[in-house]
Amino acid sequence: MPYSNSDTRLNLSAGLASVAVAGLLVGLKLWAFWQTGALSIAASLADSAMDLLISGAGLGAIIYAARPADDDHAFGHSSVEDLASLGQALFILGSAGAIAAAAIGRLLAPAPAPLEAQSIGIAVMAISALVTAGLVGWQYRVAQRTGNRVVAADMLHYVGDLLPTLGAIAALWVSVRFGWTKVDSLVALAAAAIMARGAIHIGLSAWDALMDRAAPQEIIDGIAEIAEIWPGVRGFHDLKTRTAGARIFVQLHIELDGAQSLSAAHAIAASLKRAIIEAYPQADVIIHKDVWHD
After folding, report:
1. Which terminus of the chain, N or C, has fewer Cβ atoms within 10 Å?
2. What would the pLDDT profile of 204-223 be if each residue is shown by its tens digit?
3. Contact (Cβ atoms closer than 8 angstroms) between residue 121 and residue 31
4. Which residues contact residue 79 at a Cβ distance below 8 angstroms, ignoring those fewer than 6 apart?
């Protein structure tokens, strides 16, 4: 079932806001890193740069996935969301490795790398945290309204960004207060670990979807519960599901009384289909009707 026009506009607004915020944060953090030389800010800068790429790809995926099915894509275009997610995950892993290597190099260096203009860095990172929190709030509202998985994933990614941003603020404050510059590298290592963990999760989810993995078990069980008690359905079998982006594709065989009219059988199947879609709005449901044998 495609998104409604209002939900599509909300999804697009969340995607555009994400791109705008990521671009703003890249500019702010680039200037802060140039002023301070803090590696924790560099880690946050790299993360924001990835956010910009991810947000851009996510916006493109939202736009492309919203296109209706056509002759070449009879099941729609939602798989582009999974392709974009897989590419993003690989890019995040590479960036996390580069940040971790730089942090380890600084930790092993005989003399700590000096940090400069920490107050500027703290101010910029605080602004970044506030802007990110505002974006997360809007994305949460949109994800709750539309159920878009791309928006929800982007929201979770930005929630994860708040930790290294706050960590960078703490590292700069500790440097100013106590002169412990190595804390900067430790924060960068923690940020790299968070990025790598998130990338692995995103990548595996995208891979599962591209390999036509079944929907989560709770959704399968929910569909089975609806079919089991539906009026006129004597039984069901061959319940199959797969996911693609935010879509859930469902195939189900139901057993009906063969003595009833074709119109009555069709009405039962159609009402069951509507009930499943009402419970899972992004489901695309195909129901096959079989004759019930006692």
Report:
1. C
2. 877 877 777 788 889 999 99
3. no
4. 209, 210, 244, 245
